[in-house]
Amino acid sequence: MTPVSVSLTVNDAVRRVDAKPETPLLYILRNDLALNGPKYGCGLGECGACAVLVDNRPVRSCTVPLGAVGTRRVTTLEGLAVDGVPHPVQRAFIEEAAAQCGYCLNGMIIAIVGLLARNSDPSENDIREALRHHLCRCGTHMEILAAARRAVSYARTDRDAAPAPVDKTEVSP
Amino acid sequence: MTVHRETPKSSYMAAADTLLIVSDITRGQDAELYIAIGPNGRVTAFNGHVDLGTGIRTSLAQIVAEELCIPFEQVEMVLGATSAAPNQGATIASETIQITAVPLRLAAATARHHLLAKASARTGVALDQLLVEDGIVRASTGENWTLTFAELVAGEHVRLSINVDAALKPASAYTLVGSSRPRVDIPAKATGQWTYVHDVRVPGMLHGRVVRPPYAGFDHGDHVGNSLISIDESSVADIDGLVGVIAIGDFVGVVATREEIAIEAAKSLKVVWRDPPQRPDLNAPEAALRANPATARKLADRGNVDLALAGSAQPMDRTYVWPYQMHASIGPSCAVADYRDDGLTVWSGTQNPFPMRRDLALLLDMPEDMILVERLEAAGCYGRNCADDVTADAALLSRAVKAPVRVQLSREQEHAWEPKGAAQIMDVRGGLDLEGGPSAYDFETRYPSNLAPTLPLILTGKVPPVSDVVQMGDRTAIPPYAYGNLRVTVHDMPPIARASWFRGVSAMPNTFAHECYVDELAAAAGVDPIEYRLRYLADPRAVDLVKALAERAKWVPHTKWGTLGGEGDLLYGRGFAYAVYIHGPFPGKAAAWAAWVADVAVNTKTGEIAVTKVTCAQDSGMMINPDGVRHQIHGNIIQSTSRVLKEKVEFSSTAVTSKEWGGYSLITFPEVPDIDVLMVPRQDEPPLGVGESASVPSASAIANAVYDATGIRFRELPLTPELVLAALNGNKNEPSPAAPAKKRGWWKFGLSAAGAVAAVSGIVTMSSPWRSAIATIPRPDTNVYSAATIERGRLAAAAGACNVCHVGPDGTPFAGGRRFDTPFGAVYATNITPDMENGIGAWSYPAFERAMREGVSRDGHHLYPAHPYTSFAGAEDADLQALYAYMMTQTPVAEQAPETALKFPYNIRSMMAGWNALFLKNEPFRYTETRTAEWNRGAYLVETLGHCSACHTERNALGAEKSGQARLSGGFADGWEAPALNSLAKGPVGWTADAFYDYLRTGHSRDHGSAAGPMAHVVEVMQPLPDTDIRAMATYLASLNDGNAPEAIAAQKEAAIAASETAKAEAARVSPKGERIFNGACATCHQGNTVLSSLALNSNLHAETPDNILQVILNGVEAPAILAETTGREAPEVMSMPAFRETLNETQIKDLAAYLRARFAPDKAAWTDTSSAMQRVVSSAH
What we know:
The complex is a heterodimer of chains A (173) and B (1182).
Chain A: E1 4-10, E2 13-19, H1 25-32, E3 51-54, E4 57-60, H2 66-69, E5 73-75, H3 88-95, H4 105-118, H5 124-131, H6 141-161
Chain B: H1 9-14, E1 18-22, E2 33-37, E3 43-47, H2 56-68, E4 75-79, H3 96-123, E5 130-133, E6 136-139, E7 147-148, H4 149-153, E8 157-161, H5 186-190, E9 206-211, E10 228-232, E11 242-248, E12 251-256, H6 259-268, E13 270-273, H7 286-291, E14 295-302, H8 305-310, E15 314-322, E16 334-340, E17 343-348, H9 353-364, E18 371-375, H10 387-401, E19 405-408, H11 411-417, E20 424-432, E21 438-448, H12 455-459, E22 486-493, H13 507-525, H14 529-536, H15 540-552, E23 566-567, E24 570-583, E25 589-603, E26 609-619, H16 626-645, E27 674-679, H17 698-710, H18 721-728, H19 753-764, H20 787-800, H21 802-806, E28 819-822, E29 825-828, H22 845-854, H23 869-872, H24 877-888, H25 911-919, H26 933-945, H27 949-952, E30 971-973, E31 976-978, H28 993-1002, E32 1004-1005, E33 1009-1010, H29 1013-1021, H30 1027-1039, H31 1046-1062, H32 1064-1070, H33 1072-1086, H34 1107-1115, H35 1120-1126, H36 1146-1160, H37 1170-1180
Parallel strand pairs in B: 1-8, 3-4, 9-19, 17-18, 21-22, 26-27
Antiparallel strand pairs in B: 1-2, 2-3, 5-6, 6-7, 9-12, 10-13, 11-12, 14-22, 15-20, 16-17, 16-19, 20-21, 23-24, 24-25, 25-26, 28-29, 30-31, 32-33
């Protein structure tokens, strides 16, 4: 197919790129938008190094054609921080030193952010299943699991700290 | 742009206000730089080794900061850049902390002494009364002054040689070394701010890809560099953005403006290679290694081995087999090169910046000092991967196109070409003496060499592809036990597959033999395995370690296997192993001591081994960064467990075939064992390498644990379920029962040509074969048609999916030219645009209608029933008239589609008259009054314009749709099976009107799967049809299926999914390799995924032939979202299924198909015609 001009919402900004619609999103993010978080690992959706969030769901950007993104919101590792403050999941990974070479780290963090988006209190089994198809060659699994547990505890604290929803029927006029 | 350039050494040499510590000041500018302290007090320290993900950047900075007495944050490490760092060789053998950090520490001490002396001179305070802390010098006498390092450095450029006798800080005074400093690189890595070599961007950078020869993974022999026959550049001539195609010998590469264009060009480029030579079978490497010419090298010979062997009370001769394994970096290698007339700069993830620079100089005929290697981190490699190869690739491509080029290897290339960790064979002859002691230990090890030359050097013919022999099979070849009669022989031999060092090089296999064998001796002697070892272990630190581990793991001494029992299908076992990793040239140096207790659970039904817990003790000497050491131990345990249980490179007779993570699988999170680490405190001892030690005992500890559970000794790796099951079952697996006869595609009927002629010619006489031409007309004026008519025609074209077949090769609507392979030959779709010469512009409506209803072209020749006129015959006049009007409004295309030319006798078109007499019922569609208007509308669309039967009905020997029960009961089209649309559908879940609607409207039904192949195009072109028409078709099609009540559907779904879960173990038994490929390559989207439905529901897995499954595996499937988008609907899945055509080979795909069938359609017989289906599918691609 011939190149088309496509606008994408990446990390809350609308970006315009010219590329063929079948181009994997990964190359658009890395080469056109200079985002280094997602990494090329296999191009087959197997290893998870290229994971990004599309509408808060973790997907493998190497298998997402540009033409399939449409108006969905794409979030990369770079887009998780708010005002330069790392996302709690990133913080958990930093605090647990959950990287050796760090090449797979992007996918691990995105997977845990995605897990917490759909399950705010995941079990150990949920965590391991969410990471099942994220490969790490360095054997950083222990530290990554510790980071994931820490991230879950942060999410739990945040949830507990949030004000309880107000039941309006109880509010006296 | 992310351009990473280290400040070159020359800048430091020229800087004012700087203190430099160099190797030898008399060498002037050539001296090697170790420490630079600038006027701001910042310390830059240089090391020739690189960080391979182990965190040495942090540990080295700790050493420097400690010795200088400055804050850790004040030190920055420069690692491996040839422009600045000292040449300290390759980063291998756990040497960085143990060896290459030594001069760095001395340099820091030299600097500290110099600065203190300077402070003393400046203040008059005696040296021994000066204190330095956090980079600030003061007097111990309490005088009121301080001097910072910055102040002491300012004002002059001082250059000193390293003082090898400089007094080092005593370990007792350490505050930084021995503390767990957080790694300096992780915050940036966790936020996407770190620059890996993959992230380097240089202004004007182009993207390159290489095309490798077919002898994947082999690098010696006359054919290497000599196999390219031709390159057809016209095959990529139409790719916009392609900059160049480069070929030198067997080196082939492409360069393009964008990465995806380079990928497309590399895939499309037609390259013809000579057939690669046959190789010995490396899947079972023992025979190949024994046959490989070798030179025996005796490393030890004490006592009288031959006499002792002859006198053994209980002789035990054993052989241990280690497979080829791969480094398996998660990121395939990548590099950027910028070649200019005045020199070359490369950005590389190399493990060996300086040796690689030498190779680049040789490759490019360029002096070494014109080459700059910027070393950036890459994905962890644990040995040498393709980092050097790809750097040389990039250099060649940059030189050719005169611009900076980034080359990224594909996953397949990294897997296939990375120099492997070599296979190894260990033989032990020995046994027990009369007292139960070891009578003798006669150990022989065979290790194929690992000096793989940088690939482009041999591909281009710059270096002859000969195989050097290197002496690297001797690591830890001497057993740690005091065997009185000991002989150790290493057989040095040339490589077989391309190989390099891999974590625990040769030591891991050698220890596998040593530690399994001593375990066997203990069992034979009736002694607890740890007690037996301790009898012969002399090294006191080893003894301490083993005892400490036994206590930590709560080891219960035992003399028989099976003491831990089991439950259900599980047997439990515990195994022990110990090693001190001896690295470097023989006799080598010891790195850290390590010992394992592994706990396993062996599933006797599936053969799966779960390593449930590893307790590991390690004596690392002084630990610079204890957390870093702990992480290395964790990493070693997990990686080596993966290697022992799962990892083995597979080969065809000519090349590596493991090219992705299903064919070469790694351990996953659910399989990771619990780990308990005991780090023996030895902060008063010299530091030892910790990068590899904890891997070394792994295989033997796990194998010994499996013995403890099952009583079976495994002496080859990996310990796959099929290996374990075969041993448990005494190797008596029955072959799976044969499946019943298969259904055949309509073209497969072996009707002889003569028979066909006879059958057809018998009819010719009964009908008129010759039809008259209908006169041409000027192209109709489309203004005479109302907008409503044209719109109706547009919808008729959508319902008829005309453009699925008549689309032009470049996507131009209705231009024709698509080829369809039929048993009678290739049929080409015609140009149906209103072009006067090549299309139907000169056709009157009667000519058009005759073609549509009777299959006769305007000029009177018969059309073949690939054109579904038998269906169109029943269409309403108004629809055909509107369709004619619509077609006449299309843009004429002046391209002639290829002529259909069938084989004799089918090329006699007049015979079609007889065919029509038999099979064409030219009558209007009959409405059924007892049915609703919706049903009738649906029936009309399905049976006439939609011509669903053309694909979904089997054809007879003459290519006509069968009637009666066969109607819509499934057929074949364009290499795909078109499944039954009626109650004969094979899927486990019945079709409802809603399911048909979803499928036809969005291309996806949750209970059945996604449209792919030709059907995806049909869904796409039906997009203009209103929902009411799609709904009507769905209602009609549902009526062909027996009543499918919602409760029944739900029950069917549940049952199918449950059956696929139950079938897991059996499917793994049927096809263990298929299971691994499924888990590695498919399960990420097809298992436990909340978006795609279970494959157990997918019609194709329940079909009688595997054609559609093979189609999707080979060619991939577009994301459901793409198809849904064309219909204006949402679908949640944005990921496409990738094509595995270039990745999996035929054997792997067959294994996978067998697994998929057994797992997801367990009630169906195994497919038996996968090979012929594969041929059909591959030949259908055009």
